[in-house]
Specification:
This protein has 370 residues and is an alpha/beta fold. The two termini are 24 Å apart. The chain folds into 2 domains: 120 residues, Leucine Dehydrogenase, chain A, domain 1 (Rossmann fold); 181 residues, NAD(P)-binding Rossmann-like Domain (Rossmann fold, 3-Layer(aba) Sandwich).
Length: 370
């Protein structure tokens, strides 16, 4: 049968829905991977080159992430084919149209992702009342604005640094994808004394071994600039960020940026996976054999979904951030400690942790999954 069926296993996906509305120019897909732990939460991604297979992989990452974080939610994901920077009116029509088309799929709760933000979630909420990551005006905790995922990466860094003999003060950080996740991770780590030595976006890379001014770079990007027209630092190509000499490397953009053919160029001690599925399995195995400590995506970048789960329950911002730090520190310790004790890759230890929790939930749910 091929396609998404090649990715299916005994955990899921339980639903794959393709939405096609020619009158709107809407082409989208929703994947509910597993809802044994509760209604699935996962972001809506807008990009011109997404695929259903990618959506399935991202939905599985959310199943593992939510289970590992101990949340009462399963994993799902949705994708909408289009240019993220399309005119606001067109984006609103497409997002609202997609939400309406899946209004009865109560096993899925929309959240923000690449190409979507708090305003997009407000549109979804207005349509179907089922969205998280809402604007503060609607009682939400604006996770991208506050940097919930970046805050979680900082918590993971505090634990992981001990496992690779690294001091965060003075540690050199490179961020691949200086956007909603990457900029906040750099900002929080800078507060711990780390130095941002390189950052990239879709246009290129800016690099300074003596450290870049993180807040100045954030302000520059907020004004519509790109890293290659930032007044400081040396300008390099987009992929050059992979081989910048650093201590901590944070992929915070698209999937599969590190593959077998380029993973050998990485020059870091620690990778904190800020993006979902940023490495192919083969690349991650190569890095492990090379001595690079990798904190897997669904452990390190769970801050955003923890924040949204807290938002659903009416928590305050401070309570949400406390929960992010507590859960991610504990899970990073459990995963890295388990990996060290069993002499395995951190991802294997993380998978054991998350899958065990999913299966425990499946065992007590109707039909074993739903």
């Amino acid at each position: 049968m091929g396609g998404v069926f090649d990715l299916a296993d005994d955990l899921g996906p339980v639903k794959v829905i393709h939405v096609h509305e020619p009158g709107l120019g809407l082409e989208a897909a929703l994947v509910v991977d597993n809802a044994a732990c509760g209604p699935s939460i996962g972001g809506l991604r807008i990009a011109p080159d997404v695929s259903v297979d990618e959506c399935c992989r991202l939905a599985r990452a959310m199943t593992l992430k939510n289970a590992a974080a101990g949340l009462a939610h399963g994993g799902g994901k949705s994708v909408l084919w289009g240019e993220p920077r399309m005119p606001r009116r067109q984006k609103e029509q497409l997002v609202r149209g997609f939400a309406h088309a899946v209004r009865n799929e109560t096993d899925y709760i929309f959240g923000p992702d690449m190409g979507t933000d708090e305003t997009c979630m407000a549109w979804v909420h207005d349509e179907i009342g089922r969205a998280v990551g809402l604007p503060a005006a609607l009682g939400g905790i604006p996770l991208d604005e506050l940097g919930a995922t970046g805050w979680g990466l900082r918590a993971a860094a505090h634990v992981a640094a001990r496992y690779c003999g690294l001091e965060l003060k003075g540690a050199r950080v490179a961020v691949q994808g200086f956007g909603a996740v990457g900029k906040h991770a750099a900002r929080f780590l800078a507060q711990d004394g780390a130095l941002l030595v390189a950052a990239s976006d879709t246009r290129g890379t800016v690099c300074d071994p003596n450290g870049l001014d993180v807040q100045a770079l954030i302000d520059h990007k907020a004004q519509g600039g790109c890293v290659t027209d930032f007044p400081a630092g040396r300008k390099l190509g987009v992929d050059a960020v992979i081989e910048v000499d650093c201590d901590i490397w944070i992929p915070a953009a698209r999937p599969d940026v590190l593959r077998e053919e380029n993973a050998g160029r990485l020059r870091a001690k620690l990778m904190l996976q800020g993006a979902n599925i940023p490495c192919t399995p083969g690349a991650e195995k190569m890095l492990h054999e090379k001595g690079v400590l990798v904190v897997p995506d669904f452990i390190a970048n769970a801050g955003g979904v923890i924040c949204t789960a807290m938002e659903l329950r009416g928590a305050t911002r401070s309570a949400a951030f406390d929960a992010i730090a507590e859960k991610i520190r504990a899970n990073t310790e459990a995963v890295l400690g388990g990996a060290k004790a069993k002499q395995m890759q951190p991802r294997q230890a993380a998978m054991e942790l998350a899958v065990r929790r999913v299966r425990e939930a499946m065992a007590i749910r109707r039909f074993g999954i739903m």
